[in-house]
Amino acid sequence: MLKIISGFLAGIVVFAIAAWQLGGSLMLTEYPSPYGLEETAARIQHNIKDAGWSLSGLRSPSNTIRKLGATVPNTLLIEACNPDYSKPIIKDRDTRILSILMPCTITVYEGDDDKVYIGIMNSGLMGQLFGRMVAGVMAQVAADQQKFITFDPNKPAPELIRPAAKTGGSGSGGVQDLGGC
Fold this sequence. Notes:
The structure is a single chain. This protein is of the alpha+beta class. Helix content is 44%, strand content 18%. The chain is built from six helices and five strands, in the order αβαβαβαββαα. It has helices spanning 2-27, 37-50, 61-67, 83-91, 123-128, 132-148; strands at 28-33, 54-59, 75-81, 104-110, 116-121. The protein starts with a helix and ends in a 33-residue tail after the last helix. Residues 169-181 have low confidence and may be disordered.
């Protein structure tokens, strides 16, 4: 009996360690891009719009950090929203707190190897943590995210959709709402 109990406990410990080590890589996925930083971001933006989503923002945390004197690789955050997906989550009192995950954010960044990468949250897996309704919505988001990062090499490079400069300020560090949720 002692062998069974200790085997069971050892199994739990091994599972917990594996989950702890692999958890981050399951929740976030990195994809290499065949394009440069701005072209990758532009292609994602246009795929987002083609899929019927709204662009909510484009931010550069690396520019903000550089203003503080640090040297960091270029990073862009593309924010998008689909009200059809957001509505049931925000409408329900029990899931409204998940609005913290909105808008959907995709990161495009330069790696230490001078290549460009795309990072997305595993929305399908994340949704499964919060019940059937959220899992259903997030499965649809995950399918759309794959469309956002699938590029047609035969299409010419689109222009990056940049936020308009804010009036009355420097315009370079502000966040501009591009519409959407």
